[in-house]
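Form 12-C: Joint structure prediction
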Amino acid sequence: MSAEDGIRHHYRTCHLCEAICGVEIRLRGNEILSIRGDPADPFSRGHICPKAVGLKDVHEDPDRLRHPVRRTTGGWQRIGWDEAIDEVARRIVAIQAQHGHDAVALYLGNPTVHSYSALLSGAVFARALHSRNRFSATSVDQLPHHLAAWLMFGHQLLLPIPDIDRTGYLLVLGANPVASNGSLMTAPDIVHRLKAIRARGGRIVVVDPRRSETAALADRHHFIRPGTDALLLFAMIHVLFDEGRTAPGRLQPFVDGINELERLAAPFPPAAVAEATGIAAAEIRTLAREFAGAAAAACHGRVGTSTQGFGSLCQWLIQVLHVLTGNLDRPGGAMFTAPAFDLVSRTQGTSQAGHYDRRRTRVRGLPEFGGEFPVAALAEEMDTPGKGQVRALITSAGNPVLSTPNGTRLERALGGLEFMASIDFYINETTRHANIILPPTFALERDHYDLVFHLLAIRNTAKYSLPLFEPPPGTRHDWQILDDIATRLGVHDPKRRPGIGERLRARWLTPRRTLALGLRFGPRGAGWNPLSNGLCLSRLARLPHGIDLGPLESCLPARLGAGKRIQLAPGPFVADVERLARQLSGPRTGPSLQLIGRRDLRSNNSWMHNSHRLVKGPNRCTLLIHPTDALQLGVADGTLVRVRSRAGAIAVAAEVSDAVMPGVVSLPHGWGHDRPGTQQAIASAHAGASINDLTDELAIDTVSGNAAFSGVAVTVESTAT
Ligand code: SF4
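Section 2 - Result
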């Protein structure tokens, strides 16, 4: 921090989304005067998005809880930390003693991955809870990525990242990085990076049921019917084999299953999938030829391809496309990162590398992945009576009522729990059901390092941010709360009491020390050598803008998991191909429309709508509907329409637009702040409607169990009729 005319400058990483932009915060005393992009950050180069000001807004938000509260019949009552922690631990132990360990479930929300301390201590807490009913935001929209990485490359975190700074051809499927700033592809300043592809003679093609903001920067955009991306990918692969365009190159010696892929792709020639996908056979051939013919090509398939009935097949086939064209592990293709704190090498060969289907959920029999069950099963595990029923829930940094499928059913189930505790600083649509809320400090009161997003970045960098503010007296960090509950569980249940060695280790090995050790002894670390130029936490702390560690580098087969081979035809994916083939002979259209989601730049899922600057202006929670469908339904622009699905109904304003394809409607996610009992005044005044009152917990990607939010069958009618 520097001082000048009473103005201080603080440099840190914005933790609000995956782009990890560097920000410069100007302060006078403790007053934040401005938040700007940090031009000296080697990765984000001065870029920020409009959400960055949310750092100030959330920090100063009068609705943010600063002390624990208990729900009583007379309203929320302030209580002390010790009392709150003790009650949470006591109730967990009592319910588990009566009904078994699995009677208490855990849900970790998306912001967990934006706090290294919550991430590290969350895993420890999950073990202390002794429950197999663990859920997280992973199965909301990205589980198929991790499953494909585990089954193909041998580690759930070995996610290939499109090398967009060097690619000559970017195929974007079901992703809108201009609005998301990159997701599972950390790419700050994405607009300029995309424009640079075309400026150097490359090409961008976007395939999406909506002509998105990213499509506006592309050479071509194709509408595709929701849920049919796997058919398109198989047809492209068919063309590669049919025209002799497969060329794995240096990958060939360590790839298994190429012949199996040729057999599997045979029933999917472009002509066979054209009607189902809505993309002409000739165009599919062109896509395959362009991808194979580019000097370097990458495919970025994100939320739209994961959150559908064939999400796992999509993520698998995207990587197959990379391998068959020699674009995996090639500059300009899809590459692996080499972060300074390397979660992959730290856990390679352990159960944390991944495991799948070791057990199944009680009610529907959905498979676990990495020790977690799909969140689409959470409500039924709570509201279905019987042995093993979930009777209590602990949530941390999540709002599953608004972010998981069929939020209405989940909300009803929360109301029926014997006990619920939430680690959160807002009383939101989910935490309002808690008996106890334990608010952690906000990010500006903590240090910061991105354990996950350096791993997913398009360039290797490292950056550590010191806390901007001292945490106010009497507040606790997320990891301290989790640690305190875990310790207290041992007080109420002697069987969980840790031994002296374990206690000393837990006390000494704080998240910060774990980070320091991980950096020092990581692949770029200084180790024990005091003269080394390698990284350590203290060196990083002296580099407030971060450090550039260079472009992604080829690393296969060394970085692969056990066996050092790429599995191109994993059994669970191969077994699902027949179901995909049946889609070709199934009904093409029905009387209903297909609902898809969308994201906008000023929203961050559900939790930043209490910032006036981020919600002001025209209503963004509108239902996009194509003019042809609108005309047929008697819906005009701005008409209030009722949208119904199997799960429920909402009322929302229509926005007539040819940016969505005929037969498809689109609604943004994260809204629906009109539930009574929340304490987020600005969000309530800009409530919108929740897409997850329409999405269906029974619709999933069969292989992974990930929720299938895209392509939900809905009907739309004007409320005036
Ligand atoms: S793009 Fe993401 S990381 Fe960058 S300023 Fe916006 S919210 Fe923060």
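Section 3 - Comments
Residues 69-141+343-508 form a domain with the Rossmann fold fold (CATH 3.40.50.740). The pocket of iron/sulfur cluster is lined by residues 14, 16-17, 19-21, 48-49, 51-52, 181, 188 (CB under 6 Å).
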